[in-house]
Amino acid sequence: MSFTLAPLPYSHDALEPHIDATTMQIHHGKHHQAYVDNLNKAIAGTPHENKSLEELVANAGSISPAVRNNGGGHWNHTFFWESLAPNAGGAPTGALADAINQAFGSFDGLKEKMNNAGMTRFGSGWAWLIKGADGKLSVTSTPNQDNPLMDVAEVKGTPILGVDVWEHAYYLKYQNRRAEYLNAFWNVVNWNKVASRL
Ligand code: MN
């Protein structure tokens, strides 16, 4: 079995002006494609060939760095594209809003926590909103292409929203201004999708 790159669920320019079309073309078509291609190369002819992506990610601590990094890259980016949508943003509602208010005091409290997690992730990685085993929401971050589903994660949980803070996610439009990118990200969050993951 080999993994394939799904098309984006919207056009490359659909998230303008918050995330620009050129960034989306390169991020999805080059970076994400490379994770898929390198994952397929790394598992070819190994017992990992017949495992699901979820299985590989859950056992990140006992697989090769190539499978961990590229498998994580494939999982994380697939999750990220689905977390975004054109004409989205605004504020979460219903049970999701209740859970956010309970955990962070308010939606602004969540934004502050997640922006801070993204800003303080040195180098490359991700900031996540996760649901813990106790059902409570919290914010965490992971380096490189790790994620909170991995056995090696410092803080484990089920991601319901994530933001890519690798420079390749924002450099063309925002250069070194990661904070501006993180603020813009909130304008394209697909809250219906996030709520469905809760
Ligand atoms: Mn990326």
Overview of this structure, please?
The protein is mainly alpha-helical. It has helices at 21-43, 53-58, 65-83, 94-104, 107-120, 171-174, 178-185, 191-197; strands at 125-131, 137-143, 158-164. A hairpin with a 5-residue loop joins strand 1 and strand 2. Helix 4 (94-104) packs across helix 5 and helix 5 (107-120) packs antiparallel against helix 7. The radius of gyration is 16 Å and the shape is globular. The chain starts with 20 loop residues before the first helix and ends with a helix. Residues 27, 31, 77, 164, 166, 168-169 line the site of manganese (II) ion.
Question: Which small compounds were modeled alongside the protein?
Answer: manganese (II) ion
Q: Tell how many strands the DSSP assignment holds.
A: 3
Shape: globular
How do the strands of the widest beta sheet line up side by side?
Answer: 2-1-3
Instruction: Please describe the biggest sheet, giving its number of strands, its sense, and whether it closes into a barrel.
Output: 3 strands, antiparallel
How many helices? The count is: 8
Q: Give the N-terminus to C-terminus distance in angstroms.
A: 30 Å
Rounded average pLDDT: 97
Assign the structural class, choosing from mainly alpha, mainly beta, alpha/beta, alpha+beta, or little secondary structure: mainly alpha
Q: Report low-confidence residues grouped into runs of 5 or more.
A: none
Helix content: 40-55%
The SSE string, one letter per element, is: HHHHHEEEHHH
Strand content: 5-15%
